[in-house]
UniProtKB/TrEMBL annotation:
Keyword Ion transport: no
Documented EC number(s): 3.4.24.-
Residues annotated to bind Zn(2+): H462, H466, D538
Protein name stated in the entry: ATP-dependent zinc metalloprotease FtsH
Transmembrane segments: 34-51, 145-167
PANTHER family linked to this entry: ATP-DEPENDENT ZINC METALLOPROTEASE YME1L1, METALLOPROTEASE M41 FTSH
Summary of subunit composition and partner proteins: Homohexamer.
UniProt domain AAA+ ATPase: residue ranges: 233-372
Chief location category: membrane
Species this chain originates from: Caulifigura coniformis
Recorded name of the encoding gene: ftsH_2
Keyword list, A-Z: ATP-binding, Cell membrane, Hydrolase, Membrane, Metal-binding, Metalloprotease, Nucleotide-binding, Protease, Transmembrane, Transmembrane helix, Zinc
Length: 663
């Protein structure tokens, strides 16, 4: 989708800001070349001059070859001796006598050079030259005192120059030209409008969020439309929701719809071990965004840097708090003509600083929740575009069986189904592949574990107990599948599949869930007269539900309608260290007694129900020992249809004594 960048009114005195590359070029012209580069250039010139003075001319020959040409062939014309280096010229260029000499020395030129042996010194060379009347010159080459002093002091000069250069530039070490300039630059990734292939058509299941963000898109396209009526677009949009619901995806879709640059950074990338680096990165990031306006600046996982101030151990000088203060300052510094929208995402809005959430910074809060049935269907259609599907695949049925799945879960479901079809050599993904993928995501991957007969039988009765309690309890979701195949961290799994999206839960349903959680232990006690350690996870889940019922939701008559919540408002290091419990020990004891009563009643109720259906319990456990997996159809054939589902309790109508009753 192409669009024309907005061209809103600008102040008449406004000038185009320089880019960061132009700033660096201007600074380079102002300060001139750096000192270390000048010193390095001088050193190279000096060393080259010294090398040229000492360089020998002619072909390099062996000293023995030179001595043979001098004494036997009388083929040396003149000689010059500098220290131990001998240079000279031949009367006639000699030829290489053999292949070995030719391999060491190439074709000889009229000039030659060789190295005189130092130990022992050849004392016959000078007399031999005199005897043959050969002109020679012998001297000791030494550099001048100035050159020697400069050569010896060159390393010190280089070190001193580098130190002075760093000190000179460290007047503002965190600036773009300081010695840490490259280190403190913003690591935000910039995506050009041509790179933005994501639009609202690629985002399914988030209709409310897209409606909220449509105004942001229109403002980026035409800011004058809003400024004409004095309206101000929100400076910041906070996307809140569980992990995997598509917060980053919808932010990129906004940039794709508007056709503007998109800067993306994670909140943890601001924090470093050096104090002040995070604040400098924030300044650099906002400066770059303003230069590219209109644009979108996306900060993912902003809770990593935007937590409530004063909660850490470091106090006000903490690096994280300085970074947050800089973000607050930069968001206040936007002009109305600067079309920069800051979009942040978090799954922990409860820990964010109130100054970050106030109007003028993150004005608009958009909740990105898990998709509904229609939303899941749309997400599945997006992810199966490139996946060949078999005729028996019903996406509506898949969407109905994946209640509670996020967008990331649905994408993983399609991918796992495609992988399973590939492993089995299929040409298309069928319904069986989706079932296997769902079991892998919900229950975990299969484990190869060998259990003895007693452990296997106890596991079968344990899972049969869960299944029967759910089968004959009308307030809970229906049983979808029972298996004793080890998956994930469990030896068996009983899966309950919701039939509808649910956003509220009642007291009767919670007590029914407690009975189901205790069903496995109840079956073990009823059949084997002992408990096993396999019910550990069931006890954790049941205890958590009972504690919430008593301490948060006021579902206990003895404790009363009071919420007892401790160490939750500030669940991070620092705050909860000094949070105190706001109720007495007597109240805590009463809460524990109620939790214990809830769980004991649930277990007794489960045992009583299993006693009434002992025959069905034995049938289900025996079938599990044979086939290891029972689905809903198999259970119906085995023990009959389940009890009719009843998700809402009966209404109780109370009539006051003075109100007439009409029959």
């Amino acid at each position: 989708m192409s669009s024309v960048p907005p061209s809103g009114p600008k102040p008449p005195t406004a000038t185009k800001p320089q880019s960061r590359s132009e700033d660096r070029e201007t600074e380079a012209r102002r300060t001139g070349p750096p000192v270390p580069m000048v010193l390095l250039l001088i050193s190279i010139i000096l060393l080259g001059w010294l090398w040229s003075q000492a360089a020998a001319i002619g072909t390099r020959v062996d000293y023995s070859f030179f001595w043979d040409q001098l004494t036997k062939q009388d083929n040396v014309k003149d000689v010059k001796i500098v220290n131990t280096t001998i240079t000279g010229s031949w009367k006639n260029p000699p030829s290489n006598p053999d292949e070995a000499t030719k391999a060491r020395m190439p074709t000889l030129t009229p000039e030659f050079n060789t190295e005189m042996p130092v130990v022992p010194e050849d004392r016959d060379l000078i007399p031999e030259l005199r005897r043959r009347n050969i002109k020679f010159d012998a001297r000791t080459a030494r550099p001048s005192v100035f050159v020697e002093a400069f050569a010896y002091s060159l390393p010190l000069l280089l070190v001193f120059g580098i130190i002075m250069w760093m000190m000179r530039r460290s007047s503002d070490p965190m600036s773009s030209g300081g010695m840490f300039g490259g280190f403190i630059r913003s690591p935000a990734k910039r995506f050009k409008p041509s790179d933005q292939k994501t639009t609202f058509d690629d985002v399914a299941g988030m209709e409310n969020a897209k409606r909220e963000l449509q105004e942001v898109v229109e403002f980026l396209k035409d800011p004058a439309k809003f400024q004409r009526l004095g309206a101000q677009i929100p400076k910041g949009v906070l996307l809140m929701g569980p992990p995997g619901t598509g917060k980053t995806l919808v932010a990129r879709a906004v940039a794709g719809e508007a056709g503007v640059p998109f800067f993306s950074i994670n909140g943890s990338e601001f924090i470093q071990m050096f104090v002040g680096v995070g604040a400098s990165r924030v300044r650099d990031m906002f400066r770059a965004a303003k230069e590219q306006s209109p644009c979108i600046l996306f900060i993912d996982e902003i809770d990593a840097v935007g937590r409530i101030r004063g909660g850490g151990i470091g106090g006000g000088h903490d690096e994280r708090e300085q970074t947050l203060n800089q973000i607050l300052s930069e968001m206040d510094g936007f002009n109305q003509s600067e079309a920069v929208i800051v979009i942040a995402a978090t799954n922990r809005p409860d820990v964010l600083d109130p100054a970050l959430l106030r109007p003028g910074r993150f004005d608009r809060h958009v909740t990105v929740d898990r998709p509904t049935r229609e939303g899941r269907l749309g997400i599945l259609k997006v992810h199966v575009r490139k996946v060949p599907l078999a005729e028996n695949v019903d996406l509506e049925r898949v969407a109905g069986s994946t209640i509670g799945f996020s967008g990331a879960d649905l994408r993983n479901l399609v991918n796992e189904a495609a992988l399973n079809a590939t492993r089995e050599g299929k040409t298309a993904v069928d319904r069986h592949d989706f079932e296997i993928a769902k079991d892998r995501i919900v229950m975990g991957a299969k484990r190869e574990e060998i259990l003895d007969d007693y452990e296997r039988e106890m596991t079968a009765y344990h899972e049969a107990g869960h299944a029967l309690i759910g089968w004959y309890t009308p307030e809970v979701d229906p049983v979808h599948k029972v298996t004793i195949v080890p998956r994930g961290r469990s030896l068996g799994v009983t899966e309950f599949q919701p039939e509808e999206d649910r956003y509220h839960i009642g007291e009767r349903r919670l007590h029914a869930q407690l009975r189901i959680a205790m069903g496995g232990r109840a079956a073990e006690k009823l059949v084997f007269n002992e408990y096993s350690a396999g019910a550990e996870q069931d006890l954790k889940q049941a205890t958590s539900i009972a504690r919430k019922m008593v301490g948060r939701w006021g579902m206990s008559e003895s404790v009363g309608p009071v919420a007892f919540v401790d160490a939750e408002e500030n669940p991070f290091l620092g705050k909860e260290m000094h949070d105190q419990r706001h109720f007495s020990e007597k109240t805590a004891f009463a809460i524990d007694q109620e939790i214990q009563r809830f769980l004991s009643d649930a277990q007794e109720s489960a045992i009583q129900l299993l006693r009434e259906h002992r025959t069905e319990l034995d049938k289900v456990s025996e079938a599990l020992l044979k086939s290891e997996i029972l689905d809903r159809e198999a259970l119906t054939l085995l023990i009959g249809p389940p009890k009719t589902r009843k998700y809402a309790p009966d209404k109780v109508v109370t009539v006051s004594p003075d109100q007439p009753v009409h029959t």
